[in-house]
Amino acid sequence: MSILDSLQSAFSGLGSKKDSFVGIDIGSSAIKVVQLKKEKGRILLDTYGEVALGPYQKEDGVAGELTNLEIEPLTKAIKNLLSQANVTATNALISISSATSLIFILKVPQISQRELSGVIQNEARKYIPVPLTEVSLDYWMIPKNESYSDDHSGSSKDSTIDVLVAAVRNEVVTRYNTVSKSLSFNDIQYEIETFSALRGSLKHELSPVMIIDLGASGTRMSIVEHGVVRKFRAISRGSAYISSSLQKSFEIPFKEAEAMKREIGLDKSATNSEAYNVIEVGTEYIFSELKNVIFDFEKEYKKPISKIILTGGGALLKNIQPTIEARFNINTVHANPFSKALSPEFLEDVLRQAGPEFAVATGLALQGLE
User: Fold this and answer.
1) b/e string for 135-149 if b means 16 or more Cβ within 10 A?
2) What's the rounded mean pLDDT across residues 89-111?
3) 107 contact partners, CB below 8 Å, separation of at least 6
4) CATH fold of 20-241+279-369, please?
5) Which end of the chain has less neighbouring CB within 10 Å, N or C?
6) Residues 183-199: pLDDT tens digits?
7) Dist. CA 106–CA 141, nearest whole Å
8) Helix (H, G, I), strand (E, B), or coil: what is residue 154?
9) Is the pLDDT of residue 5 over 50?
10) 3 state SS of 103
11) CA-angle at 77, arms to 73 and 78, nearest 5°
């Protein structure tokens, strides 16, 4: 499935395009917004902002903490952020968390379009742990001209097709609809955050690229070639896990643990070697999964990964970029989503540094303008 295509049904489904659009990225520890507008064929950055959700969960809540907000405080947090960021767009696209959705690739026989839906429904049951009546299901065939021939598998006959399947629980869609009704927008659509992150991070890369979205509650890994998702894996280990590990190891408040994580990161020269070791152990599982995903792709497609792009708040962990680059011997960079829009020159450095955290929100806003 090409990430340049519009997502449909519960994931997206934009009608006529608007001149101004705001992307609202609802994460597990923070909400980010990016408002873009199109003027004379150019995309301009109007405004952006972020709010931590910890204080909305409890009185002594702090930034970086994982939350599971009820509808009322979640709506309040969104409204406050929209006001503080001076968002004026009347059209929005909201991210659906990968933690509440499921993405996988199926190989199915070459059959008619009429038969395909039934086959996918049957195959999807193997991956979805709840009855299909409880989810909104959508799928996209990878176009033949974008799909590999079976040369890489040694078969001379192309007898299967790849289908990207996405599923979101109906209760999640209902929850988002309830929140949306309380917001003053003319039009609101949804998209799974993984696709938004890809749109906000990729440029025109032709060789295989891996996007690693290091969120607070989990990490998403996607391998994309020619805008087509080839591999996807999500794990429930994110940057908040590292903060929690430091909190327990040193018996300190979460706020101090979060500051310690940001200060030390993966800096081997840090004077607090014990804290460094805790952080290193916390990232080891993520790196192990990265290795598996890269190995699986290169084994199946006989092509190397040309670049790794880091997104999400966890991408700002000190020294994570050079650590990944050295470990996997692959060119590794931070996402720079704000480069896709014109902005004041004096903000260039600030926007570049903040970029990885705003890849999803930017990707959402771009979808509205495409």
Assistant:
1) bbbbbbbbeeeebbe
2) 88
3) 160, 161, 162, 163
4) Nucleotidyltransferase; domain 5 (3.30.420)
5) C
6) 989 999 999 999 999 99
7) 10
8) coil
9) no
10) strand
11) 120
